[in-house]
Structure formats: C-alpha cells, structure tokens
Protein: Transcobalamin-like C-terminal domain-containing protein
Amino acid sequence: MMLYLLKVLELSTVFSLLLLVPGILTEKEHGSNPINLTIVNSISNAPNETYSADIVFRGILLGAMRRLQQTNADFKFTCTENFNYGPFLESVNGVAGNNAEHTYWELLVQTGKNGSVIRPDVGIGCYIPEPNDHIILNFTKW
Structure:
C-alpha cells in the first residue's frame, strides 16, 4: 500500500511540474493553427474586415483574439466578465452593442469540415476553433 501511495505522489508531482512549464503540453508539442476572423456589420453594411490569427492547439477563441489585438493595431475588442456565463463580447473595432437598440455581437463559425455556418452554443471564452474554421463576428440585432 505504501509503495502505491508513493507512486501516486510521484506521478502527481510530475504532472504538477508539467503544468508549471508554459506551453509544454500545447505550443511546443502541437504548434499553432492559423484561423481567419471576419468582422461583419449586418446593420450598417460596412465593408467586412478579415484578419488572420494563430491559435494554439485546443486553445480558446478569446486567446487568439487577445493575441491578434496585441499584434495588429487595426483590431480592437472589449469584453466584460459575466459571473455565470463567462466573457461577453461588448465591442469590436469601436462598434459596441447596445441594449436600448437591441444590438449585439454574434459569434458564428463557418466550419472547415463542410463549409456550413453554425452558431456555437458557447461564447468566445469557451469556443475552441478547429483547424480551417472561419470565425465570423457579426454585429446584428435581436
């Protein structure tokens, strides 16, 4: 029994050390995948804006958006944290949703599998893009 407990403790320590080394289980092992992100304003019919970003293997969309914002001065966004639902996208490139006008930013994804456009059942803080997904941030009304 004591030998079993020592082995469990040893494995636990090794796993904890792996978690402390940044990127050891994601970036170095699997690299990153490029994604395209298009900004669409369905209300004003402004021209679409498309950006390319890198996302780490199994990384969330919010991380790719933050990386894009740091490396591209033309892309800016704000979000607020909802305690129950996570990050809520408020504005993109200076255009903000407004409750009184019933406007918001909708997350859509054109999948790389068959090209269909879906509305994920999670937001930017939980959505994990697949390789070749095309992310669409659509400003629209509810």
Remarks:
- The CA atoms of residues 61 and 124 lie 5 Å apart.
- Residues 3-9, 11-21, 23-29 have pLDDT under 50 and may be disordered.
